[in-house]
Amino acid sequence: MGVVRILVSGACGSMGGYVCRGVGAADGMELVAAVDPAGIGHHLGEILPDLSEESKGIKVSGHLASTLEHYEPDVMIDFTRPAVVMNNIEAALNAGTACVVGTTGFSEIDSKTVARMAESKGGACLSAPNFSIGANLMMKFAAEAVSSFEYAEIIERHHEHKKDAPSGTAVKTAEMMAAARGSKPLSVVPTARHNVAGSRGGVLGNIPIHAVRMPGYVANQEVVLGGLGETLTISHETTSRECFIPGVLLAARAISGLSGLTYGLDSLLGDE
Predict the structure, then answer these.
(1) Average pLDDT in the 14-19 region?
(2) Per-residue pLDDT at 105
(3) What share of the chain in percent tops pLDDT 90?
(4) Which of 61, 136, 144, 148 has minimal CB crowding within 10 Å?
(5) Which domains are assigned to the chain?
(6) Catalytic site residues?
(7) Quick check: 41 and 59 in contact, CB under 8 A?
């Protein structure tokens, strides 16, 4: 396979900057375009001075459709906002560009819409709530362990600026665990009196999910499974957003072999 040409949407955001650096330093990839209304007209090197020399001269655009048409990238990597990501995906698929999407907050209707768009255009989109290899293994381990326990709860901790709760990672973890249990749902301890409404968390697949939003966190999660006389905790801690880049690059390399909508990174693990 030749060099994969990448456009980063949301290039000036906290995750977008890491993606630009990662793509710029990766073998077999070329950062060809950057889109972000926050940086219109600036060169990427002004915003990201530690970017590779080959990428510093890229001028940030504010208009995705025209940038897609001009540069014809193979893949758009999108870390923007739920309010704009659907339009971004549609623009990319219309241009024949595959999509790797890290923006969270998708509803079930959104996912179905993206699946229809990708299928109708003969394109591919991979959307993942978490691109960390460790976090995806944490989800896999939790789904494997849940058949041996009767109780489980999820505690997720994110930075104070995260827009949605619970996190997409927590939702996908609960979905995977519920699917692994099949027709034998987990038990939930009944609470006779709630002194504060919602104190037991939201419940998905009979799994209470607790969301913490606080400075100092990036993206952490614990899955606690309980049985007679014991608990098992499967945890993942993120210390830097750099941890998401290997998964993003894995997806960008693999997307040419996919079609339609792929949700989650787990199906690609082991492909490198």
Answers:
(1) 93
(2) 77
(3) 85
(4) 148
(5) 4-131+241-268 (3.40.50.720), 133-236 (3.30.360.10)
(6) 158, 162
(7) yes
